[in-house]
TrEMBL record:
Gene3D superfamilies: Thaumatin. Residues 1-22 form the signal peptide. This is Pathogenesis-related protein 5-like. SMART domains: THN. SUPFAM superfamilies: Osmotin, thaumatin-like protein. The keyword Signal applies. InterPro entries: Osmotin/thaumatin-like_sf (IPR037176), Thaumatin (IPR001938), Thaumatin_CS (IPR017949). Keywords: Signal. PANTHER family: OS03G0233200 PROTEIN (PTHR31048). The keyword Signal applies. CDD domains: TLP-PA (cd09218). Pfam families: Thaumatin.
Length: 247
């Protein structure tokens, strides 16, 4: 039911036949539970751009976007944005090149919700990642579907426990706007899982990634945090919440 606080983008039901199996399109519902406007950014891994790449989402508002089978990509929240009538401007966190409609990724630090739909074994793969840092709480809740279908998310205020050396401060308010990853802060192989630390065997958790993991156990805290951070589900739609109230 439409109302002033809910935006509904026309969705449709698509069935494709892959290897003789009927696969449904997936509906993403983006819900803003934050007390402030966010500007979701969306980066698609193929030509199927959802939501034109970005739009404003006021407190309490929701948007439905439909992705075809095989879609992959990521969602994130931008905050403190100002755009002119032509869609040019900037955001305090998560900016994607100074445009409303993103055609590239969000500038770290940024919390990410990542998806690969109908991947290996016909399953969807999804996660919430803090590998690029943190700016807003996010949650992914499967709706329907079969399989494990666990909730994924980071519902803690990581900014509240962010160490001084990782903090991004809002120049207007003086409060912590985001929390950088150790990779972004120090650009070292140990923290970035590159060079001599480019494999799961040589890139171990650090005290910085442990801080992220302690705050958000169900989210990626560093590049090889797969075992407790990647989730699967089949035939599901997904609710993506900004500032979710609970898991």
């Amino acid at each position: 039911m439409a109302n002033n606080s809910s935006i509904h983008i026309l969705s449709f039901f698509l069935v494709v036949i892959t290897s003789g199996v009927a696969v449904s399109a997936t509906v993403f519902t983006l819900q803003n539970s934050c007390p402030y406007t966010v500007w979701p950014g969306i980066l698609s891994g193929n030509d199927n751009t959802l939501g034109d790449g970005g739009f404003p989402l006021t407190p309490g508002a929701s948007v439905q976007l439909t992705a075809p089978a095989g879609w992959s990509g990521r969602f994130w929240a931008r905050t403190g944005c100002n755009f002119d009538a032509s869609g040019h401007g900037n955001c305090e966190t998560g900016d994607c090149g100074g445009v409303l409609k993103c055609n590239g990724g969000g500038f770290p630090p940024v919390t990410l919700a990542e998806f690969t739909l109908v991947g290996d074994g016909g399953k969807d793969f999804y996660d919430v990642s803090l590998v690029d840092g943190y700016n807003v709480e996010m949650g992914i809740k499967p709706q329907g579907g079969s399989g494990d279908c666990h909730y994924a998310g980071c519902v803690a205020d990581v900014n509240a426990v962010c160490p001084n050396e990782l903090r991004i401060m809002d120049p207007h308010t003086g409060i912590i706007a985001a929390c950088k990853s150790a990779c972004a802060a120090f650009n070292s192989e140990e923290f970035c899982c590159t060079g001599a630390h480019a494999t799961p065997q040589t890139c171990s958790p650090t005290h910085y990634s442990a801080m992220f993991k302690s705050a958000c156990p169900g989210a990626y805290s560093y590049a090889y945090d797969d075992a407790t951070s990647t989730f699967t589900c089949s035939g599901s739609n997904y609710l993506i919440s900004f500032c979710p109230t609970r898991s």
